[in-house]
């Protein structure tokens, strides 16, 4: 049975708006003509996410999100790790509420599962455009 799950690793964090967020993510996946499989969102600390970054991506830097894609050609599956500390700090830097910044990071991870990339400047621009488009679709 397809599912979107929210959990924590090494921190205490309560994610609210689960139902609306799940509805939103399912809608984005459908818009992209894909099928929801199983997506896990794991909320962590900076230190935990940095360890994953070093171990799996060979980057010794802080980041707000790491996505592990386990898709087949149509069914969207994966694990999206999010540093709550980084989202909080970035919300101040980018002058957003914590919730708005968290939604952006959540959809950024989902877009990676949908095979959007952000390595090149042109890819980053497209990713930001898609994030903005998706954020407008969040249910009220």
What key attributes describe this structure?
140 residues; Collagenase (Catalytic Domain); 48% helix; four-stranded mixed beta sheet; 5 helices; alpha/beta
Describe this structure in words.
It is a single chain. This protein is of the alpha/beta class. It has one domain: Collagenase (Catalytic Domain). 48% of the residues lie in helices and 21% in strands. A four-stranded mixed beta sheet has the order 1-2-4-3, with helices on both faces. A hairpin with a 5-residue loop joins strand 3 and strand 4. The longest helix has 16 residues.
Would you spell out the secondary-structure blueprint of this structure?
Elements (H helix, E strand, L loop, with lengths): L2 E6 L9 H14 L3 E10 L1 H12 L7 E5 L5 E9 H10 L4 H16 L7 H15 L5
Parallel strand pairs: 1-2, 2-4
Antiparallel strand pairs: 3-4
Helix pairs in contact: 3-4, 4-5
